[in-house]
Amino acid sequence: MDIFERIAKDEGGPLGQYRKKAHGYFMYPKLEGEINPYMIFNGQKVLAWTFNNYLGLANHPEVRKVDAEAAAKWGLAYPMGARMMSGHTSLHEKLERELADFECKEDAFLFNFGYQGMISTIDALMTRHDVIVYDSEAHACIMDGVRLHMGRRIVYPHNDIEKCEKALERATKLTEETGGGILLITEGVYGMTGGLGILDKIVELKKKYKFRILIDDAHGFGVMGANGRGTSEHYGVMDQIDLYFGAFAKSMAAIGGFVAGPKEIINFLRYNLRSQIYAKSLPMPLVEGCLKRLELIRNGHELRKKLWTITRALQNGLRERGFDIGVAEACVTPVFLKGDVPEATNILIDLRENYKIFCSVVVYPVVPKGVIMYRLIPTAMHELEHVQYTLDAFAEIKKKLEAGAYKGSTEIQDKAIY
After folding, report:
1. How far apart are CA 381 and CA 54, in angstroms?
2. Among 34, 128, 260, 327, which is disulfide-ready with 108 (CB 3.0 to 4.6 Å)?
3. Is 137 within 8 Å of 129 (Cβ atoms)?
4. What's the predicted TM-score (pTM) here?
5. Burial (CB count <10 Å: 0-12, 13-18, 19+), residue 54
6. What CATH architecture applies to the domain 3-55+301-415?
7. How far apart, in whole angstroms, are the C-alpha atoms of residue 368 and residue 348?
């Protein structure tokens, strides 16, 4: 069959099957205006709880000034080419040195895109003789990197330290046969639930097994720990994490990422990361902008204090009102309700159209059938009055849900924008 004919007959996959009804409203919605607590959606002002702009740096005046000046100075093209060939500059090196210093590592290497960086890091580190051990709820970028691995891979149930140890036992036996090594991959903060990876328990297993640890701390970098150095700082295990991966898309409110670790390993990655060797270098305005962002994160104790004030007010308020927010310990705050997909849809429409609150919704198959998950992301931009308004709105919605007000079909297409 012709490839295009097959695709044309397909419903569009797990997400694409909803495209005709959901595009423009539930999927690919357009939030317009300055990145602030209030933005414009579907022609109306809404209170946005959907950005990973944890420290509010997206619209920080110092950041905006540096971004604008750097863009005017360099344009978006410089430097041209990949880092290895013609896209390398002293400012790229400076950002790497400062990131390594911030994470208390010997060296760091920049990625022009975080997702690619994680995939390529896994690919470069592993041979077919090596074994990957990873958490079942790892991010898609980790999953895609694991899929590239030509050797054995062992998954353990999320944050189950006993099963993690059994996976390491099995991996150890396999590597005794192959002569390879073991890489354990986990996350610092899980971006859907706000739960933390059990880094403190995992590093203890190094006393019994020989393996290296790579953590994806995209949601922890800049936020977790006394100085914002991440989840490994929060647990006090920075020196026991072998490779630290951070992304710029969250607390930095930018594009890109980095991996930090021992100098000899980072140098190896510099010459073996295919996604960086064969891709254009991070543009100079982003490099200069990230230097300013890192400076603000280093000195951002007040921003983090504000963020955690908002986070705790939201999470404590939800729990006090009887909401299930799971294991949320970081800023990401899920709200779990019981209901089907039509109810989830109707609630989201009510939130956006009547309460003027914009957040994300997650339904089956991402969560079990009968579960609805709304995802709220507090930031340093938000105020306590925003928290109070949202708590009151969710309390009313919960009552309506329990009374059956959201049952029945919904006219999704009426809300979609084409």
Report:
1. 8
2. 260
3. no
4. 0.93
5. buried
6. Alpha-Beta Complex (3.90)
7. 18
